Automatic annotation (TrEMBL):
It holds the Pfam family Neur_chan_memb. Residues 190-245 form the Neurotransmitter-gated ion-channel transmembrane domain. It comes from Heterorhabditis bacteriophora. This is Neur_chan_LBD domain-containing protein. The lineage of its organism: Eukaryota, Metazoa, Ecdysozoa, Nematoda, Chromadorea. It is found in: Cell membrane; Membrane. Keywords: Cell membrane, Ion channel, Ion transport, Membrane, Signal, Transmembrane, Transmembrane helix, Transport. InterPro entries: GABAA/Glycine_rcpt (IPR006028), Neur_chan_lig-bd (IPR006202), Neur_chan_lig-bd_sf (IPR036734), Neur_channel (IPR006201), Neuro-gated_channel_TM_sf (IPR036719), Neuro_actylchol_rec (IPR038050), Neurotrans-gated_channel_TM (IPR006029). Residues 18-182 form the Neurotransmitter-gated ion-channel ligand-binding domain.
Length: 252
């Protein structure tokens, strides 16, 4: 049995690529009776040469497109081996998971959801079984100073996502992150300018009937402004097959 804790800091969530960056400390604890010793204090392992000689589980991040260890100025890890044979491993990783649960039909009033899956690479469930620590605050710890541009982290939770492959049943853990998009930028850059254009278009109603050039000038100015604003908003979003709330607002 393997207990896991994830101490992570999501960095940036990109709407254009549907992915985000995570700087995480992966903490694992398991019991290995072969490593029992008679010392009254836990043994510290912080040399990779010794780490390679000790059995350890093989977790992988199944929905991550890229992953790497932090090696500046030293490989960021440490291991404690307690007298009873309990092993505690702490290692720092950098990940680029895929945020697949993003639907932009309500953009910018949407609430993106991200997940991070941890599974065993080769050991089946009868050899290694992953479990979160019993308390959620112990299982997933987030940086309290976390600031994500345009997004606010609302909540997070943990779950089990055990699955089956051709070679057997494999243990899997999943961390969920629920976010909310801040609309302050869109209010200043889209909503307020659009409202001003609508108010400005009413001027043509109060112009004298003989002032034809003025009526045409006001209508063309509003039309060109809204067209430029619509094109600017489209450039910031991925090409999807449905209409977003922001586009519907500008159209109307």
């Amino acid at each position: 049995m393997l207990n896991s804790i994830l101490n992570c800091t999501p960095r940036v969530l990109t709407s254009l690529q549907f992915d985000y960056d995570v700087d995480a400390w992966l903490r694992m604890a398991w019991f290995d009776p072969r490593l029992r010793h008679g010392s009254s204090r836990p043994v510290l392992i912080n040399e990779y040469t010794f780490l390679k000689k000790i059995w350890r589980p093989d977790p992988i991040f199944t929905n991550s497109k890229a992953a790497t260890f932090h090696k500046v100025t030293y490989l960021n890890f440490f291991m404690f081996i307690f007298p009873s044979g309990e092993v505690f491993l702490n290692i720092r990783v950098y990940l680029k998971p895929t945020a697949a649960q993003i639907v932009l039909c309500k953009y910018p009033h949407d609430s993106p959801a991200c997940s991070l899956k941890i599974s065993s690479l080769g050991f089946t469930q009868d050899v290694v079984r992953f479990e979160w620590f019993s308390k959620l605050d112990d299982a997933i710890q987030l940086n309290h100073d976390l600031q994500i541009p345009e997004l606010t982290l609302l909540n997070f939770n943990s779950s089990i996502c055990d699955g089956t492959r051709k070679s057997g049943n494999y243990s899997c853990l999943e961390a969920h992150f629920y976010l909310k998009r801040e609309i302050g930028y869109h209010i200043a850059q889209t909503y307020i300018p659009t409202a001003i254009c609508v108010v400005f278009s009413w001027i043509s109603v109060w112009l004298p009937e003989e002032f034809v050039e003025g009526r045409i000038f006001v209508s063309l100015t509003v039309f060109l402004t809204l067209s430029a604003e619509s094109n600017s908003a489209k450039e910031e979003l991925p090409k999807v097959s449905y209409i977003k709330v922001l586009q519907e607002l500008i159209r109307r």
